[in-house]
Structures are given as structure tokens and as C-alpha cells.
Design goal:
89% of the residues lie in helices and 0% in strands. With 72 residues, it is mostly helical. It folds into 2 domains: 28 residues; 42 residues.
Length: 72
């Protein structure tokens, strides 16, 4: 690799990170109140979906056990 190729690669890398920094400055970060509201919403939905999956799993397992019991 020649010196010119190395310098060209460095300038591309520097240009990339300058672009990343510029994009991060455009981000509108939520305030603390909004962040907490969104956190609570995500946790509630996660708990509800987890409970539904657990109920479906429990029901399916009982159905399978019932059907196996009938066949014996």
C-alpha cells in the first residue's frame, strides 16, 4: 500500500466519523418525563405479552397432555 492510498483511506475514515458526529447532533433526545413514560409503556406491553404467551403455552401443554392421556 502506498502513502497516497493510506492518506486517502484516512481521509475517508475521518470524513465518515465527521458525518456520524453531524448525524448525532441532529437527534432530538427525549426529555426525562417522556423517556419514563415510554419505559413504563414498554414494560407494561412486555409483561402483558409475556403473560399471554405463558397462558397459550400452558393451555397447549394441557391439551397435549389430555390428548396423550386419551390415547393411552
Amino acid at each position: 500500500m502506498s502513502n497516497q492510498e493510506a492518506k486517502a483511506g484516512d481521509s475517508k475514515l475521518v470524513h465518515f466519523f465527521k458525518g456520524v458526529r453531524a448525524e448525532f447532533q441532529k437527534i432530538l433526545w427525549p426529555d426525562r418525563e417522556t423517556l419514563l413514560k415510554q419505559l413504563v409503556a414498554v414494560l407494561c406491553v412486555t409483561i402483558v405479552v409475556g403473560a399471554l404467551i405463558a397462558l397459550i403455552d400452558f393451555g397447549a401443554q394441557n391439551l397435549i397432555n389430555f390428548l396423550i392421556g386419551i390415547g393411552s
